[in-house]
Amino acid sequence: MSASTTVSEAAPPASGVRSSLVNRLIVRPEIGSALGAVLVFVFFSVITEEFLSPLGVATWLDDASTLGIMAIAVALLMIGGEFDLSAGVMTASTALVTALLAVHAGWNVWPALLVSLLFALAVGAFNGWLVMRTGLPSFIVTLGTFLALQGINLGVTRLVTDTVQVSGIRSSSGYDSAGWIFASTTDLGEARIQASVVWWIALTAIAALVLMRTRFGNWVFAVGGVLPGARAVGVPVVRTKIVLFMTTAFAGWVVGSCNILRFAGVQANQGVGLEFQYIIAAVVGGCLLTGGFGSVVGAAIGALIFGMARQGIVFARWDSDWFMLFLGVLLLSAVLVNNAFKKRAERVRR
Amino acid sequence: MLPVLAGGMVLAACSGPGADVPVPNDRTPVAAGKFESVAVVTHGTPGDAFWNVVQNGAQAAGKDLGVRVDYNSAGDPGQQAKLIDNAVAQRVDGLVVSMANPDALRPSVERAVAAGIPVVTINSGEAESARFGAIGHVGQSERSAGEAAGARLRQAGKAKPLCVIHEAGNVGAAERCGGAMQGYGNATTLQVDINNPTDAQARIKGALEADRSIDAVLTLNSQIAARAVAAVRESRSAAAVATFDLNSDVVDAIRAGALLFAVDQQQYEQGYLPVTMLRLYRANLNAVGGGRAVQTGPAFVDSGTVDAIAGLVAQGTR
Q1: How far is CA B298 from CA B44, B152, B265, in A?
Q2: Residue B31 has what DSSP assignment?
Q3: B81: pLDDT confidence band, cut at 50, 70 and 90?
Q4: Cα distance from B33 to chain A (closest Cα, Å)?
């Protein structure tokens, strides 16, 4: 990810002025969040003993991981100029499909996972298709799927199980092997690293490569930046956007699978409201709400800030009543810093 | 960082999912020792009136015993598990956990036990408590509390109750309704949203108007009880209202005769007792309850007992 790739972004391209290293750094969309992450990290490392301990690190990495997996997919979609409000509920829907098939229909966990993957991809494709077909804002379309999925989650779960949660997947066949992929843990010294952390890092690397190094990545910037222009130069706009919606649905499936196999149960109302955290992480990571600009690595760092702050506050033993206030101040400052850098970056580019 | 971790995956011992730590079979992992800090991790959403009383109880016990009590909560089971992991990383001297979703918390609770931290479970998770290695449980069996409430309604001569569920994903709520409606062939349940009081009141009113034969409304939360009382009044229904849990509105309504009774699970005890139990365990290896759950309820508050309770509700301990 060298600075030269920023040319493919929709913002005005560098005018050939040789940039200094500082200037090259400043035009990166993730610079603000990276600084913020360092700040939060140092802050909690200094004021609490446990934050830097192996157990402590494992705890906040764990917290950041599932949020991060979603945030990078949501960042791609936002760079492509769209929102997905159904992303939070999707993590519960996929887990419920898997759990209902494995526990109540007695399936092996693997085919259950496959069906829930197909289900997720179908919903994602439907979101994308409907947005492109109707021209409605994705905010509205995915708000509809969000509500519909929420209803299906509760309705189907109550219908099948008579209660509001599905549990007992630990005794299903195929649980051990599937669990190894999605919910095993690795001990690095005293730290117990969850599989979701590995998924997070791997998917971040893949998504960053796709965005910055492939033709598809250029299409994403193009459809989010100047849609008519992208269409005019032959970018397959519809296909690109549908694939992006399917990507967030896929991420929802990964997180849903990690959750159901790790926690062995899923509640029908799980995931509601998380979609905003994904968007916040992406925005803290430098994504613009208007599309066409942003970074996958930034979104991953945004999720990291979230995880570090959320657990750091507990380590610091602050009264949790104030937690949301702290989070709000943190997010606002991150976005303000981002904004300042962006203005500076635009000056550099000119 | 990826290659490092990937390498770590291969080199380090990789544990299977969920199972995580092998917990010793004898279940006497912790020795007596210092007792300075307790972490309380519940599934209540921050700001919930019910859990506020639990928190008050835990903090009062901490003050009385000279122990630092940190209270944290998360409604999402995954988040709650992370808060438990966090407490383990802090090496607290005792842990209090409410287990609305025991399966999800199992690895984290067992890990705390294996790390030598005595655990007391509260509120929900009675059946799993000992199996996960906790030294005791303090709570009210939701099923039997529901049954007791149902029996009281029958005593009062009620034939067709409506049970109002205020939280879609709450297992305890479903249990209470199930217990209370047992034996009533014609009982109905109604789903409302606790975060939207206007809607809750309108829906209860609608249900009462749609079916005039409903002669009792049972709510599972004190905030919803006030909505039900108003709904009964507005719909000019003759139905009696009864509820679980207390607040000052409920107290006033009982005084005014608009509420038949409230089932009080005395959740202050669910905050206070575990800290005391952990203290006894740390100092003297005592286990309270002799292998059985300590029941905090159901206690009933009605027109006969309401005056004695009123002041305590106002100060946040009942």
Answers
A1: 20, 12, 5
A2: -
A3: very high
A4: 21
Contact A265 B170 (CB under 8 A): no
Angle value at C-alpha B301, between B300 and B305, nearest 5 degrees:
125
Report the complex ipTM: 0.78
**Closest residue to A265, CB basis, from B9, B87, B101:** B101
- The residue ranges of DSSP E strands in A209-305, in sequence order, are 265-267
Pick from A53, A261, A311: CB nearest B82 = A311
Mean pLDDT value of segment B87-101: 94
Collect all residues of chain B within an 8 Å Cβ-Cβ radius of residue A199.
Answer: none
Q: Does A315 touch chain B (CB under 8 A)?
A: yes
Q: Write down how long chain B is.
A: 318
| pLDDT for res A115 | 98
How far is the CA of B315 from the CAs of B52, B53, B60, B275, B286, in angstroms? 11, 9, 12, 21, 31
Percent of chain A with pLDDT over 90: 63
Lookup: tokens for B190: 């109604």
Output the CA angle B180-B185-B189, nearest 5 degrees: 55
Whether pTM > 0.90 for this model: the answer is no
Q: Which pLDDT band holds residue B25 (cuts at 50, 70, 90)?
A: very low
Using CA atoms, how far apart are residues A112 and A60, in angstroms rounded to an integer? 30
Whether A178 and A108 have beta carbons less than 8 Å apart is answered as: no
Nearest residue, CB atoms, B83 vs list A261, A263, A314: A314
Which residue in B has a C-alpha nearest to residue A194's C-alpha? B17
Query: Any CB–CB contact under 8 A between A215 and chain B?
Result: no
- Which is nearest to A149 in space by CA: A275, A277, A280, A303? A275
Per-residue pLDDT at B175: 87
Alpha-carbon distance B5 to nearest alpha carbon in chain A (angstroms): 7
Residue type, A123: V
